[in-house]
Amino acid sequence: MAQAYMTETGSDGRGPERRESRIRRLLDGWRADRGIWRRGLVLAALALLLALVMLTHGRIPNRIGNLGSLTETFLPWLGVFIPVLLVLALVRKSASALIAVLLSGAVWLNLFGGLLTDKTGADGDLTVATHNVNADNPDPSGTARDVAASGADVLALEELTASAVPVYEKSLAPTYKYHSVQGTVGLWSKYPLGDVRPVDIKLGWTRAMRATVTAPAGPVAVYVAHLPSVRVKMKAGFTARQRDKSANALGEAIADEPLKQVVLLGDLNGTMNDRALNAVTSQMRSAQGAAGSGFGFSWPASFPMARIDQIMVKGIEPVTSWTLPATGSDHLPVAARVKVDATAS
């Protein structure tokens, strides 16, 4: 007796039904595996440790090699371990490790997920930029042209040498009518500068300054600072004592500023997460964090891993923030556009 076989039109075993059955078989296999919770406990412990470090980074002590600040400087990079642990958890078929990894991922997203979104705006009336030009820059005139081409109304430069200052002054003169150099930092502006003076950050020489920029929308106090560098030493660890002392002095100067609208431009040799900069970061907003897209890493220029070049504001609304192309320096220039309140006094 002949038998007829019928096949369902459009179903060749490769459609959604087959994919669904694969997922079902995978889940059934995991449920039937009695060792699914016992395997991968080391992976689970590592993932939980990662989450704990991110959650409690502020409690990591600085007494031993300034370990807390070192961790906070590169805190976002802890996220690179999450996909690695996730793959290992799946390979091991460990539910314990998988849950722990997902928890770590949730912690990372809670801390840094906001930086992954584009918060840039299209308004603003004052563009500012800052660049550590590097004392060993082989092409200062080219660097000056590059940063001037950014369209910044106010430009801060750090790590200026006595021999390079005339080069920067000559190259920037066609764009900026007003400028002042104080020690190793300088400020160039399209608008008049007033009340220019060095700022004492407890170094013994000048690496910070302050000026009033008379912008069209109103006066703005602009600070330029280059905090001391930090060092990683074999015996001493992450040494930053002088940087921390200077950060406190800079924070005091900004707190005493009589003008309500303040912009800080400079190389602070620390990130917004670094507790050592609390004297500054507790009273100012990061333009990148408030109005940027991504992390905006600025150092080292060859492979940026941290944003230590900062634009911070107080009493001013940041509209957009971005990183500029590389120059002859080991830092990337950074820029921001802000909205000045004409009614602020």
From TrEMBL:
Gene Ontology MF annotations = catalytic activity
InterPro entries noted in UniProt: Endo/exonu/phosph_ase_sf, Endo/exonuclease/phosphatase
Q: Which UniProt keywords apply?
A: Membrane, Transmembrane, Transmembrane helix
Keyword check for 4Fe-4S, yes or no: no
Pfam families tied to this protein: Exo_endo_phos (PF03372)
Transmembrane annotation, as ranges: 36-54, 74-91, 98-116
Endonuclease/exonuclease/phosphatase domain sequence ranges: 129-331
- Can you name this protein? Endonuclease/exonuclease/phosphatase domain-containing protein
Q: Source taxonomy lineage?
A: Bacteria, Bacillati, Actinomycetota, Actinomycetes, Kitasatosporales
